[in-house]
Amino acid sequence: MLYQVERPARYLGGERNACRKEDAGLLRVALAYPDLYEIGMSNLGLSILYHLINAEPDLSCERVYAPALDLEVLLRRDREPLRTLESGRPLGQLDILGFSLQYEMTYPQVLNMLDLGGIPLRTAQRGPADPVVIAGGPCAANPEPMAHFFDAVLAGDGEEAILEICRLVQSWKREERRTRDELLLALSRIPGLYIPSLYRFHFSRDGTIEAIEPHPQGPMGVESRRVKDLETSFFPTRPIVPTLETVHDRAQVELFRGCLRGCRFCQAGFIYRPRRMRSAGLLKRQAEEIIASTGWEELGLVSLSSCDYPHLEELLKSLGPLRAEQRVNVSLPSLRADSFSVEVARLAQGHQITLTFAPEAGSDRLRQAIGKQLLEEEILTAVEQAVRCRFPRIKLYFMIGLPTEREEDVHGILALVERLRRRAKGAGGGVKFSAAVSAFVPKPQTPFQWEPMERLEGIRAKRSFLRDRLRRMGTEAGGQQEELSLLEGVLARGDRRVGEAIFFAWQEGARLDGWSDHFSFARWQSALTRCGLEPSFYLHRTRPREEILPWSLVRFPAGPAYLWRERERAYSDPQPTKEAKE
Amino acid sequence: MTRWRLLYRVGWDLAFASHLDRWRAISRSARRAALPLAYSQGFHQRPRLAMGPPLPVGACGEEELADLYLEDDSQQQCDTVHGPMSRAPGQEDPSLRSRACFGPETKDFGLNLCGALNNAASPGLEVRQAWSLPLEERSLTACTYHARWRMDGWWEHTAAGHHVDAGYHAAAGWVVPASEVAQALLAAPSLPLHRITPKGEKDLDLRPYLLALQTGLESIEVELLVTPSGGVRWEEICRLFQERGYRFHLCGLCRTSLKWFSD
User: Fold this and answer.
1) A440-471 pLDDT, tens per residue?
2) Are A437 and A477 in contact (CB under 8 A)?
């Protein structure tokens, strides 16, 4: 079979630092990523959980990634199950299968992996011999669209709860007479673990949620888990070195979790609060150990906004020997468009040749409204400095359809790019600009969770106008396909009825939909229609404050009252909070 | 700078990696081993590691070749970093699978280099020998001229429309399948083939490349000429058989040896 598929190394495992435990009697856990190996292997969260579980002698953790279409065809033809990389065990023979949900468009792939693994798709169909199917990651901010398919969803930092979950399932497995319902009820007592089947949603005639009825013995919602002290928390220093090149084929150390910036559109900024840091000394030790155990040539200093790490210069200096003697390039993936970031990028400069900035909007007013504390002059200065530092490429990210957006804001994007080009030319030129323009998708657990999303025609018109003008200016223009953004919007703020549409779309062949060449909007439209769902109900209406939101049972540090206040500020007092910047 | 030729084995764990992935696996093994690597110059500095003829995806290799360049003081640095190589294989790293690597304490740097690399090697990679050679010696691509392959699988007699049952064949004492085809191929003055690749199409004659060919009950063994501009692919050998009534279903592929000129 491996001779008949593309990039077969995706399915083999056996990489350096992978763990393979053969002993009988171990609790068998597998972490699943509903996308290809090359994407999933770059995920830091899964790497942390994988090594954390494997550090326990009586637990075994394996990996499984979504098969590409060519392998799926062969698996189905030969009636072969999807297996884990480490032991080749069919997914149906595991005790726990944990999915990492980073992006809504991977939902159909979850169903596909369950189906290929021989696991009943719906939690109600699973018996005592089936694995416990859990999920975590940013999409846990709204677990409802996948409520029928997951036994449990963990909100917050996985490393805080994963061992508790494993231990509970382990003890349940030992007591054979207990039922699966008892297990789910017991799991619901683990803080942060949301058990969708313990809640009944009642919908009113207008489609909104009328009431949520909890199980008599279950909790009324969950509070997300968070690691209190990142300094003492587990971090793997012997990560797996992939056999084939992955999207981020590099060592990673996590500077901090959470973000101080408070951009109102950014889900990660709200769900990973508060900001928790690691010391420069610890990060240096971790970096050295990782490089020694992996041989990687690049080290990523990752976080939501790496330049906000207060000890960055100290850290970069301390990594000097690693960079000089072992030729390790240091990369800073999340930079702000300010001159300090450019200076830091210059200091770190390895083979980083593209600087990516996200002005997000075309005017200072709109940037202030969305909480992006960045003034145009700062972006201009940053670009000027980047040109002086001889960065040959600058990529810019913009969003359209943001709350409070006006026509002049859209034109402002063109004006800004033009000014940037002129400033770059004045500073010596030789830089190539590209811009990604995508539609704003309101996300749950953010101040804009009540906001309507722009309609398809509007997004199309604006994107087409901008792309056309940008290209005429000599700037490459890209961004996410409009239909893909719309669907992401439905799945992001959908309720459990949307799960049926996901099921139908998967049945009709939806796979790897995050990849635009696999995506079919017509397939999704047909699936939504088949369920009697109207996308505009989820997308284009302003939700009143009192409406019960599908994700209201999952509570993150920034609660609804705070989020609403932030939303109000976007309309009434959009001034950037300079004090937060400090 | 010193140049070291590595003779290494590619096992199952690396068999399905690409040529570039294998380059990365060896260079990372060398980095993990803290060898004093020589690097290329320029913006993207990379370890100086030149690979032998590419091994196709899906193939194991028993005697693969690569040239690794080390800094001048490599002998001294390696002794400092690794000390005497007298520990048992894998002792430093419990996650390592057992593999034959180095023997008792030795001052021989070639063995020392093998040991250091094997101790840090990616699964599926085993360095069997390492020896130094002059910097000016010809590149691996230029000096490799011969490859021996073994393909394991099963035969299908497409003309007769049935599988060739190897066990039944052996019990009946019949001749091995497709042996007459192998003889005919070797006797042919030319073996024209139309090759289609993503880069384009071309017509070529396979016969000059074909040095020896033997079929077994469940195998094909073939010796091929390797030239700096390339050689014959295993699929093309199978195609020759298929065009003559025998389809070979591949289950395992191994380049068992490479031969090279020495200056």
Assistant:
1) 999 999 999 999 999 999 999 999 999 999 99
2) yes
- CA pair distance B259, B262, nearest whole angstrom: 10
Cβ within 8 Å, pair B32-A293: yes
Closest CA to B29 of B120, B100, B96: B120
Confirm whether the ipTM is greater than 0.85: yes
Residues B129 and B6 in one domain: yes
Q: Would you call A3 an interface residue with chain B, using a CB distance cutoff of 8 Å? A: yes
Q: How confident is the model at residue A200 (pLDDT cuts 50, 70, 90)?
A: very high
- CA torsion through residues A361, A362, A366, A367, sign: positive
Task: Domain count for chain B, please give it.
Answer: 2
Q: Which residues contact B200 (CB under 8 A, 6 or more apart)?
A: none
Kind plus residue range of the DSSP H or E element containing A321: helix A320-325
Residue A60, pLDDT > 60, answer yes
Give A-chain residues touching B29 at CB under 8 angstroms.
Answer: 295
Give residue B207's domain range: 143-260
User: Is some CB atom of chain B closer than 8 A to the CB atom of A220?
Assistant: no
SS3 of residue B81 by DSSP? helix
Beta carbons of A17 and B95 less than 8 Å apart: yes
The model's pTM: 0.89
Set out the domains of chain A in order of their start, with CATH numbers. 2-223 (3.40.50.280), 251-480+553-581 (3.80.30.20)
A14 touches chain B (CB under 8 A): yes
CB of B117 less than 8 A from some CB of A = no
Q: Which of B16, B21, B25 sits opposite A2 (nearest CB)?
A: B16
Percent of all residues in chain A with a pLDDT value above 70, rounded to a whole number? 96
